[in-house]
Amino acid sequence: MARLLLNGALESSIPKNKIKIILDERIALLTAIENSKPGDIIVIFFENYQALIDIIKKFVDID
Q1: What is the pLDDT along the chain (63 residues), one digit of tens a residue?
Q2: d(C-alpha 17, C-alpha 52), whole Å
């Protein structure tokens, strides 16, 4: 999946130095949240749903 997304990003003229591939989904989500700005959308591909929900709950008020 990561390779497909990388290839698509490179084909759309996104500079390679602007792309980060982080395979650990927890670290990837934390990095995305920490680098996002208001209005940004974060898309997550995951295997361990609960670990990511726990991270998200630290940043937003959801039940």
Answers
A1: 788 888 898 899 888 888 888 989 999 999 999 999 999 988 888 888 888 998 988 887 665
A2: 26
pTM to 2 decimals?
0.71
Q: Among all chains, which residue has been given the structure tokens 């497909």?
A: 4
Q: For tokens 């700005």, name the residue.
A: 37
Q: Cβ(63)–Cβ(42) under 8 Å?
A: no
Report the b/e string of 38-48 with b at 16+ CB within 10 A.
Answer: eeeeeeeeeee
Which residue from 18, 17, 25 is spatially nearest to 1, judged by alpha carbons? 25
Q: d(Cα 63, Cα 61) in Å, to the nearest integer?
A: 7
